[in-house]
# Entry
Amino acid sequence: MLLLTFVAFVLLSFELHPTLVQAFQSRKTADTTYRRHVFWAGGQYSYNATTNSTLLLNQQYVEELTPLSGVKHINPIVFIHGGAISGTQWLNKPDGDPGWASYFLKLGYLVYIIDIWSVGRSSAEQLPPLFPGSTVESAQLGFTAPELYNKYYQARFHTQWPGNGTRGDPSFDAFYSALMPLNFSPLQENTTRASTCALLSQLSAPAILISHSIGGSVGFLTTDGCPSRVKAHVAVEADQPAFAIDDGATNGLNETVPGRAYGIADVPVAYDPPIGSAEDLKTVVVGETEYTDGLISRYPCTLQRNGTVRALANIRQAPILFLTGEASVHAVFDHCSVEYLRQAEVRVTYVILKEMGIRGNGHFDMLEKNSDDIAGVIAEYLAGLK
# Structure
C-alpha cells in the first residue's frame, strides 16, 4: 500500500472566502480540536515503455481526523462527497458554521474524508472525461434556490439554505466557489471502488460510510467490493435510482431516462444468483408519473421483474440508512432507490425528513441551517447498530 503522509494539529475551521469575512466575524462558533493526518490510499506504479517513464496511478486522497478528546466508538466514519464538489463539503458550511465532520468528531468518532478518485486532490494522471460541475443557474435551480424556479412540486417547500441561494449572496458564493468538474465513467466507478476498499482495509474496524448524492454510488460499490469492511452505509439522497437517470426532474421533465445497466451502477456488481451480463437483469416499470398542482411530484420506478429478482449479494451484507429532504428533487424519485434495494434483500431504513418534523431541506442538506437536526437522526441510528 502506497501512503504519502503528513501530520498536523489544527482547529476544525473554515477557509476564508473574500465575500465571507464579514459573515465570519458575526458567526464565530465553538468547534472541535482534532489531529489531522493526510495520506493517499491505493495506487499502483505504472511503467510506460514508450516514454521510458513511470507514474503513480489510482491513488485517492484521504484526511484522517482524530478528536483530541478521545475516540469513543469502535467503527470510524468515512465521508464520501457528492458530485461536482470535494470532501470539503463535510468540513464547514458556506455560512461559516461547523459541518458534519465537526458534529461527529464531538461525538467521539474517528473521521475520514476522501476525495473521490479523479476529483479534487485525487486528480488522476489517466483522467477520464470531465464535465462542468454546475453552472450558477443549475446550482441555484438544483441545490440552493429551487423554490425560485418551481420546476417540481416539492421545490416550493425549500427554506433551509442559509441566505437567499443566489449569486452575490455570501453563502451561495462560498458554496459555488467549491464546485468543480466531475466525471461519470466505468473507469471512475471501478477505480474509486478499489481505492476506497484499499482505505477500508487499513482501518482497525469496519467503517460507517456516510455518502451524499453521487457519493452514494461509491458507497454501494465499496460495500460490493469489500463488504466485510463496511459496518453500515448512511446514504443521504444517494445518486440516481436503479436503471435510470432522473435528474431531469430538476427541470420538471415528466419522464425518466434509462441508465445504470447493473441497477445500482454502470459496472458489474455481485448478484445472487450470479449474472453473466447486465442483460440477465430483467426489469419492469412500476407505477406512473404523478403530478401535484400541475408539477411533477413522483416518478415511476424501474425494478426487477417478479419471478426474476436477484439479491445484491454483497451490498445486502451491510444495513443502509437512506435519507431524503422535503424540498429536494430527490423527493421525486428516492423511493425508487429504496424499493430497488429492498427488493434485492438489502436492509434499508428509509427516513423522509419531513415525517420526522425536519422541514424545508434541499439536496445539500448537510450544508443547510438545520443540518445538526439531520446529523442527530444519523447519530441516533448509528447508536442503535449492533
